[in-house]
Amino acid sequence: MINILKTSVKMAALGAVVMGASAASAGVDFGKRGEAVNLVIGYQPYYTESWTGVVNNGKSFWKKHLPAGSTAEFQVGLQGSVIVNAMAGEKQHIGYMGDMPAIASTFKYLPERGGTDIRIVAALGTSKQQCNIFLVRNDAPKFADGTAAVKWMDGKITSAPHGACTDRFAQAAFKSAGVKPAKYLNQNIEVITTNFRAGKLDAAAIWEPTATKMVKSGIARRAASGEDFGLQDGAFMVMLNDLISQRPDAVMGWLEAELDAQEFVANPANADAIAAMAEAQTEQIDQSVLKASLYDSPMAGTTKLQLDFTISDDAKSLLKDATAFLYSLKKKPAAAAQIRPEGVMGQFAERVLEKRGLKTPVGRIIAK
């Protein structure tokens, strides 16, 4: 009885925090607490760091934690920006995405101009070699390490999807190595692939699982990662504040399911099952490639993925640095140098972790 009372008090406190925060007027009716809720989830099976969404979709962990009769429709987003736009239009309610789009989503609402209020509620994972990867053309020299590879890029033709985590990594690596490429092009994955094949590109920064797919296809060679420069990348879960304010019970339930998914991913015995789920939810990517993108690395023994769950110190540091980078861009998708305080709401995930008697990180995948 005491535990039930404590839980009720903490849930009430969370609800008060949410209701008291500044927000846009509610645009979606999620029903009353305890009622069935119908959710639409935008997720990225083509971004390995956010694969807990793939697992939750494949294993349906959410059914154990949401009220009876609830539904969850998973919609694939090829890029995080696609999910952000869908959430801004309130067509999706929960999003799984990389650090840059997650940060950009919080600026869809500002107190002075309104908009759609989207908030970061959990960390899906952090790493130094999921988005932070440099590939080079196959006939490039053999490099002693990643730093030497990036120094070779001085005066070369390089590329990355600009405004993404790859862009932040590439620019930071260039600065660290003291190099200036002849060209640093803004290209998407398809164009980068085509240009490597045509011999028009010396190097490019790209994320998993595309990086592993390109290497195993013989299109390019892996040369450097964030491990060489101490640079992090990450993925986060975001939610509409309409959902948070109206249904803190559903928020807690979904995060319970996310924790189930992170624990599932952290167990190496589930590697084949995870790769099979990823293959079923993507197109034209072999299961062996998908598995390698999560578990293999030239730097064996390093952390391929850290499952933080809460907004850990590592996640907070990443968000701070990435927001400053976004703000520095000429287009300024971030409207301020920092995320507004209520834009990051880690208390729900912290409460779920506390209930389970766990601490962050909930697991690590060590590269083979």
Can you describe this structure?
The strands form 4 sheets. Strands 2-1-3-12-6 form a 5-stranded mixed sheet, sandwiched between helices. The chain has 2 domains: 2-126 and 233-366, Periplasmic binding protein-like II (D-Maltodextrin-Binding Protein, domain 2, 3-Layer(aba) Sandwich), CATH 3.40.190.10; 133-228, Periplasmic binding protein-like II (D-Maltodextrin-Binding Protein, domain 2, 3-Layer(aba) Sandwich). With 368 residues, it is of the alpha/beta class. The chain is built from 14 helices and 14 strands. Helix 3 (80-88) packs parallel to helix 4 (99-106). Strand 8 (157-160), helix 6 (165-177) and strand 9 form a beta-alpha-beta unit.
Write the layout of secondary structure elements.
Blueprint: H1 2-20, E1 38-43, H2 52-59, E2 71-76, H3 80-88, E3 94-98, H4 99-106, E4 109-110, E5 114-115, E6 118-127, E7 133-136, H5 146-152, E8 157-160, H6 165-177, E9 183-186, H7 189-197, E10 203-205, H8 210-216, E11 221-225, E12 233-240, H9 241-246, H10 248-266, H11 271-280, H12 287-295, E13 303-307, H13 313-328, H14 347-356, E14 363-366
Strand order of the largest sheet: 2-1-3-12-6
Strand count: 14
Summed over residues and divided by their number, the pLDDT gives a mean of 92
Number of domains: 2
The general outline is globular
Supply the CATH architecture of the largest domain: 3-Layer(aba) Sandwich
The share of residues in extended strands comes to: 15-25%
Order of helices and strands: HEHEHEHEEEEHEHEHEHEEHHHHEHHE
CATH homologous superfamily title of the largest domain:
Periplasmic binding protein-like II
Q: Could you tell me how far the N terminus lies from the C terminus, measured between alpha carbons in angstroms?
A: 47 Å
Number of helices in the DSSP assignment: 14
Q: What is the CATH level 1 assignment of the largest domain?
A: Alpha Beta
Main β sheet profile: 5 strands, mixed
Please mark out the parts with pLDDT under 50 across 5 or more consecutive residues, or reply none: 1-13, 15-25
**Structural class estimated from helices and strands:** alpha/beta
Rg calculated over all Cα atoms:
20 Å
